[in-house]
Amino acid sequence: MKQFAFDKIELDGISLIEAGAGTGKTYSITNIYIRLLLEKNYDSSEIAVVTFTVAAADELRERISNKLRELLASLESETHKIPDEFASLINNSNISESKIKIELALRSLDDAPIFTIHKFINKITKENAFESHSSFDAEISEDKSEILSSIIMDFFRSNINNYEKQIQKMFNWSDYFKELVRFVRSVSEKNIIYSNVAADDIFSELDDFRESAIIFRDYFYDNEDNQKTFKSFAHARSNVNFPIMIKLANQVIENKYYLMEKSDDFNLYFAWIDKDTFNRKFSEYPAVDEDCLNALDAMRILYNAKNYTNIIIKRFKSAFALKALEYYHKAVQKIKIQKQILFYDDIINSVYSVVKDNADSELKKNVSRKYSIALIDEFQDTDESQCVIFGNLFNNLIYIGDPKQSIYRFRGADIYSYIEVSKKSTNRYNLQINWRSEEKLLSAVNAFFSCSDPFRNKDIDFVPAEPCKKIGQMTIDDSNEVMNIRFQSYSNQTELNVYEDITREIVSLLDLSSKGKALISEENSARPIRASDIAILVYKNNEADEMRSFLSKKGIPSAIRSGKSVFDSYEFTEFFQILTAMENPESMKKIKTALSVRFMGFTPAMIELLSDDDMSIHAERFALYGRTALTKGLLEAYRMLVKDYTAVSNISLSPDAQRIITNMDHIAELLDERKRKKDYSLSELASEVSASLDESSEKYELRIERDDDAVQIMTVHKSKGLEFPIVFAASEFLRKPDKKELGFVCRINGKNTLVMNDGSDYSTNIINSTYKDEIISENLRLFYVAMTRAKFRIYLYHAEKKTAKQSEKNKFSALNHILSSYDPTFEDRETSDVLNEFAQKHGFSFTDISSLADSQNHSGYQPDSSGKLKAKQFPDISFRNFRVASYSMIAEGKDIPYEHKADENQVLYNQSGDKVFLHEFPKGSEAGNCLHGVLEKLIENKVHDVKIIDSFLRMYGINYSYKKDVIRLIEEVKGAYFCSDDLKFSLADVKTENMISELDFHFSFDKFVSNKFEEIICEDAPELHVRNTISEISITGFMKGFADMVFFHEGKYFILDWKSNYLGDYASDYSEEKLIHSMRSSKYAVQLYIYTYALYKLLKIRNKEFNYEDFGGFFYVYLRGVSAGSSNGIYFFRPSFDAVKKIEKELCGE
Q1: What span, in angstroms and rounded, lies between the C-alpha atoms of 466 and 20?
Q2: Distance CA 274, CA 292 (A)
Q3: Could you give the CA distance from residue 1115 to residue 1134 in angstroms, rounded to a whole number?
């Protein structure tokens, strides 16, 4: 393997760059990219850069852009200074040419092919649908998890009754359903060979147990002679109790194995039979006849019943899971054909099938013509299919990865695919210089992994990293120690105090920092250590929660970066209680349960003291929230509740306040999004959605609740790619085979093979050999990632429980594997002794924390020692200037757009003439929501579904006598004239496929200043808006909204908004002049400009060739004044392009 130098590596053919932790992988990719531009004269569109996450792709694009700008600035300076790393590419003779290439690259970089794997493969299949055997019409669906869960639920419900008599009560079926969904999700689309178990008839053993129980019962039940014979044979043992033994036999006969699991009676009354009686010679007992012998044999079989039940359950679960997998494959194919959809996995599998056995496919020819080279980042995280696709599509490839950091097996990463490519690569390079860690720390890390076979895989090399120039140092109480191994031996869980020790150490560090005795020196300056300089790495999410609890008790601020799903949090349980109350406001019990949620601000005593009148008020509130959730969205209802009950301030003194609010907000957003896609009831919403989640999706991961000066707690998986001055490796990152896993994938005979965890000898042997080795190897890679996050110091914890059971667990320990490589006698020695010797040999410290005093004897974190009294500073958990904004919020100048008014608008006019046909239709927001709902469902249909109209009238409490008015309204709206600047048409002329009702949007903005926004409106449409009528606000965040309809007609895009405002009884009350008055009074121009900009932004993203001239304008349809054959009641306006560009500049600085 050659040492890497970006200006020396081969750009033609296949190259592999191994980039150890901290060796500047992204920096190197950036420089290679620039070399391809300057030396190979490639256009940016010819260089494909592929990585794993959207965030990584965005970072690469940004880093390349910044580097190009820096290089261009250097070349444009008076001195034309050429950076050293590009001296071999640029000289005085080609500066002008190089500047042109860089400028061209910068102009096109936004469109350069820098993508995730899924997005890139999707792109090439769209461009080569025929060659890749892809569907021309199918759309990519990201709802795979929901579809999968729905299919498995159908299978579950339709098959479970088949096993009611045999096994239905033997385990928790609710938990098993979740296991089943996880299993199918993890293996359904993988390129693996299935190792099946015999599935159908797995209950014959239960029949044997049942027959034996019948023999035993019939022989002894109500038969004193037989019982007497048996007792003499058993020498009057005290545990011969026929009533109990017959009861146990009946449990077997009636399939009540779940009772056996909860009782030790089988062991108490039957265990001795197998160990004692059947070692005797029955000839010694002439009283024992053949019937008695059969009964005794039955007892022996019954003794095995309880133990064998676990095996039966495993076999059943495995067989049932394979049937579910087979059912899913068939069902999902039907759904994909019916809905004309594909998943990303389908695209990958389709391309894989085309290229795997065809090195010269038409697809490869097309891809090679378009892309001269591909750079594959994080290559160690690819799977077999992806490796084959890249290897067979590109002539020139540069793989960049690190097999030592392949830790995403659970997401499908296949280390063996990396190894296969590595073996075939003729050009292999190694990034050897570490730019992250201080020299002494780097030497300490090298010491751990310089043993023989450090990763339990001979194909994974460890090349010791070399330090770069001095990157700074850290001194703590005049010591620059870089590693501290802290060991604990314990007998039971209550003695384990790793978290206490970590807390104690952090208190000490921050205390020393406050006294100027813990400093970080970088670039000729020193600063005190901050809490945010410290990271604590754990293996499981629940460990992060526990660690945070210890820190909170000592007043240490912390934030969790976790892969844990927000739906696994306690806040989800509380949110479900709130949803239940919204749906059942008549139930005082459910209302009280919702009031007990922590941020509602009620103690149990306060709830008990609530009067009937008080409860009526709360019930009315929850009824309103329920209606709002159905009509305007769950997020809107949640915000109303948060404001009405002052939820944020209620918990402001809680140490978990930020986490609670962050989780509740997150859950509300996710459930609101899902409800808009599918019409769940509120009670169904939480349970159905949480069961269907894709746990690998970052969308559901707990958000960071704070980004101020706080200790960072995260799993080692989340830490990959990050660095911190100080790292506490809080656990061993031990993974063991999960006994609950339905199946697992491991490498057998060179193939990834699914082995069902069915309790058979075959699966047991695989678990204890091949799978065990793979897990230990992965634990070693996790250990490497954890050990390479620190810049200056790492605290490494190793706890060992002294029991036989724990010693089995220690066989999966990465550190124990490394220690046994150094010391062949390790298994026979005390771990603490070996660790101490290892530490002394390599110059770092060792501490046995087993005997240290309990941290409760130490005070908490008190950095200020000046002696002055100060008010305690509580963390700011307000939303401050970051908001999810909307038209209503801006127009009203409120944080949350609640509409508690009885009517949407006051009556503005009342004139004589012909009355409008809706003049008697109820007024107010409920009536308006009813009309909106009907139009959303039926405006696109030729035939009106009366049942839908009935349901909306019923939902909003409107008399059925108005049904004929609603039906007429639909016809009047369809026949009304819509007049834009250059078109006159009716909705009946618009194709239904060109209509989208309730189009929701979200877009981010850097800053929204209300007076500047208002100025733009007033300059462009002075007749529609009155200056200084919205509150002064200056915020950053996201803008959201829902357009009642967007449609495309005659080459133009239009926005339509239904308005049910009551302006009067007569048609003349809905003339253009009076509509303008209403628009101005209701500040609708704010909505008009926000929605116009949102659609403009969306269309620009969807279609690079979109021109604002293609936007037709905005229609406001005042439903009470509309009539067929007329434009009365319809107001049209089209903002100028100049105004839209000004809004874009103000919001996004573009």
Answers
A1: 11
A2: 15
A3: 9
CB 796 within 8 A of CB 486: yes
Positive or negative torsion for Cα 607, 611, 615, 618 = negative
Measure the CA–CA gap between 20 and 896, rounded to whole angstroms.
49
- What is the average per-residue pLDDT within 953-960? 77
Phi, psi of 50, rounded to the nearest 5 degrees: -125, 130
Asked if residues 816 and 487 have their Cβ atoms less than 8 Å apart, the reply is no
Kindly report, residue by residue over 969-1020, the tens digit of the pLDDT.
Answer: 999 999 999 999 999 999 999 998 899 988 888 788 888 888 889 999 999 9
- Which range is least confidently modeled, 136-150, 610-624, 958-972? 136-150
Inter-residue contact 927 to 921 (CB < 8 Å):
yes
Continuous H helices in 898-938: 925-938
Residue 942: which residues within 8 A CB-CB, separation 6 or more? none
Q: How do strand 1111-1118 and strand 1052-1059 relate by DSSP bridges? A: parallel
Token duo for residue 740: 């609950």
The residues with which 104 forms a beta bridge, in sequence order, are none
DSSP output for 664-675 = HHHHHHHHHHHH
Query: How distant is the alpha carbon of residue 1078 from its chain centre?
Result: 45
Q: What are the structure tokens assigned to 447, written together?
A: 């010491």
Spatial distance between the Cα atoms of 764 and 782, rounded to a whole number of angstroms: 25
Task: Quote the tokens at residue 408.
Answer: 């995403």
List phi, psi (to 5°) of 1132: -120, 140
In terms of Cβ atoms closer than 10 Å to its own Cβ (0-12, 13-18, 19+), residue 851 is: exposed
Total residues belonging to the chain: 1150
Q: Which residue in the block uniquely carries the two structure tokens 């290089």?
A: 71
pLDDT of residue 749: 85
Rounded to 10°, the helix 224-233/290-339 angle is 100
Can you tell me whether residue 662 is helix, strand or coil?
A: helix
Q: What is the predicted pLDDT for the residue at 455?
A: 93
Structure tokens at 385: 């299919």
Q: Judge contact between 278 and 284, C-beta under 8 A.
A: no
For 18, the token pair is 């191994």
Torsion of CA 104, 107, 112, 114, to 10 degrees: 110
CB atoms within 10 A of CB 618: 22
Residue 701: half-sphere exposure toward Cβ, Cα within 13 Å: 15
Reduced DSSP (H G I as helix, E B as strand, rest coil) percent helix, strand, coil of the chain, to 5: 50, 15, 35
Alpha-carbon distance 465 to 432, whole Å? 5
- The rounded distance, in Å, linking the Cα atoms of 485 and 845 is 6
Nearest to 476 by CA among 516, 533, 436, 434: 516
Q: Tens of pLDDT along 213-255? A: 888 888 878 788 877 766 666 554 445 677 777 777 787 777 6
Q: From start to end of 980-1133, where are the E strands?
A: 984-985, 995-1009, 1034-1049, 1052-1059, 1111-1118, 1130-1133
Q: Which of 258-272, 646-660, 704-718 has the lowest mean pLDDT?
A: 258-272
Q: What does the pLDDT look like over 748-760, one tens digit per residue?
A: 888 888 888 887 7
Residue 59 has pLDDT above 80, yes or no: yes
